[in-house]
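Can't attach files on this board, so I'm pasting raw text. These are the components:
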Amino acid sequence: MLPADPRALFEIPDEIAYFNCASIGPLPRASREAIEAGAARRAQPWHVTMQNWVDEHEERRALFAGIAGAPADAVALIPSVSYGVAVAARNLAAAPGQQVLLIAEDFPSDVYTWRAFAAEKGCGIVTVARAPGEPWTEAVLARLDARVAVVAVPNVQWTDGALLDLARIGARAREVGAALVVDASQSFGMMRFDLDAVRPDFLVGVGYKWLLGPYGLSYLYADEKYWDGAPLEENWLSRLGSEDFSSLVDYREEYRPGARRYDMGERSALELNGGGLASLRLMHDWGAAAIAERVGALTGRIEAEATRLGFAISSAPVRGPHLLGIELPREAARRAFSLLRERGVYVAFRGNAIRIAAHVYNNDADVDRLVEALAEIA
Ligand SMILES: Cc1ncc(COP(=O)(O)O)c(C=O)c1O
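---
Top answer:
Structure tokens for the assembled complex are below.
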């Protein structure tokens, strides 16, 4: 359950209004303590136990699986989104003349990986832009035809939270025989993911933003049909029986079950794992519905105030409930950065727009602080 004052679980002073977890989320106190305990144990490695090596990351896998609505077997523990997208690219096919469909201004870790994939396969990239006021979903569906081999899209555009209807895009992708790869970094934990409706081939997400975990621990979901695919690397811990340290040179061909074959090397993350675990436990305890309700209400209030002040909303016409893009007049954008910083307000700047990313630690006082600053900028 979400406590009455979730901010008390964080180390954010009252005079800071932090609306930038879409860039990097704050570690909750419990996660910082767990990382410090992990570091202390590594300073005296004789305290490192079999449980630290083998069991604790399985709990992290299971907690993430709960958030993704997937079985734990379908989840791999990876270091970054680029790694997860590379796993997807390694296991997907495209013939020369076919295409990878991306949306305009998607995140570089996705775009660069698909560019490399296209160069290797001799296929093309089609980048879909949307007209002002057009929903992303319509723009994507209008271009998604039998020429497309892979659709690689997010659930929300990372710069402003504009929404894509993945169930509709997934259905169309299946119709034309294209694979669907989703970067859900900007929505995991904040929006319910309906795996049965979307049916992605691969799904990736970072742990250090909305999931409030340490940098370096991210997640990959792989549909069951890829559970016998090719990992990026051949790591000893990914092999069956590797928990028996005394027989490691009885080399085994078999991997651990499910998507575990895609786990990164050193996936036990001995110093960091406890932090990732603590953050996911909190997200789990708070519950998706309570998180969404609180963050949706705060973001909705900001949108209403920004509109009242005359700003245009760049994530219109449909946005994720937890993210908001506010367009500033060009001249105002220049002043806004230092003014917001002076007022203790932290947002991301994307061109002439600011991106507002609230989480459970934000409160009405933060919204007041932001709105007062916006009123000065307007
Ligand atoms: C949509 C999206 N994907 C991925 C990332 C991070 O990528 P990586 O884990 O490869 O550094 C970000 C970070 O801003 C992001 O916004």
